[in-house]
Amino acid sequence: MITPNMHYADLKDSYLFYNIAGKTKAYLAENPDKKLLRLGIGDVSLPLCDAVIKALHSAVDDQAIKENFHGYMPECGAPFLREAIAEHYKKRGVMLSSDEVFVSSGASDELGDILDLFDRSSSCLVIEPAYPAYVDANVMAGRKIVHLASGKENGFLPEPDEATQADIIYICSPNNPTGAVFSREQLQRWVDYANEKGSVILFDAAYEAFIEDESLPHSIFELNGAETCAIEICSLSKTAGFTGTRLGYTVISKSLVRNGMSLNDMWVRNRTTKTNGVSYIIQKGAAAVFTDEGICQINDNIKIYKNNAKVIMEALDKIGIWYCGGKNAPYIWLKCPNNMGSWDFFDYLLKEIQVVGTPGEGFGACGEGYFRFSTFGSPEDTKEAAERLVKLLS
Ligand code: PLP
């Protein structure tokens, strides 16, 4: 009889969103007249911008005409999109050749798939609280996981020290769930560590478009030496509302070499074996994001989410609750009042004011006692939720 991958038995039940859904459903069943305000979801609520919609329509029309029709696309991405992304990086002073950019169907796919590049004996460091996929993808591969807890004392931005030992290092900045963003100096210490030890950083930049403080790095490649130790994984999901449209990109410099192997060459080989590329239509829509018109329009949408963040932050300031995030990230991470546990606070908000957030404990043990609000909801719901919070907790 075949033996399945028994590492799946080591996975902890993903009870976070399941529990949230179960608790809210039960509450609504008992209180059908109550209006629930959901600040828990990490999905966007605004539609795709006009430039993207026009590009998608035009690409659909191309597929109807023999001369313009596209079949299989290049596995690593269409040259027009790889070039547009490389140009986008250039505006931040990051010089890439287009064959260092790989187009993907989204960051989630890449965060797990990229592990193919590393030996199973390599250890993996996850800074917690963390996006749950980092741990789960590595548990599935049977890797040793080093959990690095962060907390209020270091602003949820820990740095490596003498004791740090890891081959693969996940860094998410701006962070989900804490909204914390590494400064150049802090991130440089991780880059220097990785270069010194020969580790590889997997830098998740899914929320870079939310950074407004000019001094903060959007890309790890803005740091000295990152090209020899980092892979950047990015996504248009939150930047441009592509959660249901699906498109991401991964940057691997040609200078990233371990044991004489070029990780860029290895990823080309991996992609040409395991994918047949992203559809022409979606890549055309994505290319529109990087035009002047597209950038202007997606920024208008991001401003709406940022205003939601402002509304929640003002409410928390008013009631004197500690939080981080919100300014350069679409998540606000707060300390539950009166030393409440994450799930107790969840139940309290649901019962008293029908506001749904995400208990911090679901992102790792050190998230206990904290709570996440997402700013991706509608401005109306966000405003009402903020008013209810102030009324309850003042
Ligand atoms: N990385 C982080 C930190 C996320 O929060 C998410 C989605 O919420 C993703 C990656 C996944 O993005 P995508 O929709 O591109 O798969």
Summarize the structure.
The chain is of the alpha/beta class and 394 residues long. The protein contains twelve helices and 15 strands. The site of pyridoxal-5'-phosphate (PLP) has 13 residues, from helix 4.
Which descriptors would you attach to this protein?
394 residues; alpha/beta; seven-stranded mixed β-sheet; four-stranded antiparallel β-sheet; 12 helices; binds pyridoxal-5'-phosphate
Architecture overview:
- By secondary structure, this protein is an alpha/beta fold.
- Helices cover 38% and strands 15% of the residues.
- The chain is built from twelve helices and 15 strands.
- The chain has helices at 15-30, 50-62, 79-90, 107-113, 133-140, 184-197, 237-240, 263-274, 280-289, 292-319, 342-353, 379-393, and strands spanning 37-38, 101-104, 124-128, 145-149, 168-172, 200-204, 230-235, 248-252, 257-258, 261-262, 323-325, 331-335, 355-356, 358-359, 370-374.
- The strands form four sheets. Strands 2-8-7-6-5-3-4 form a seven-stranded mixed sheet, with helices on both faces. A four-stranded antiparallel sheet has the order 11-12-15-14. Strands 1-13 form a two-stranded parallel sheet.
- Helix 6 (184-197) links the parallel strand 5 (168-172) and strand 6 (200-204).
- The longest helix is centred in the last third of the chain and has 28 residues, at 292-319.
- The chain is globular, with a radius of gyration of 21 Å.
- It starts with 14 loop residues before the first helix and ends with a helix.
- The structure holds pyridoxal-5'-phosphate.
- Pyridoxal-5'-phosphate (PLP) is lined by residues 42, 106-108, 131, 172, 176, 204, 206, 235, 237, 243, 248.
- The site of pyridoxal-5'-phosphate has 13 residues, from helix 4.
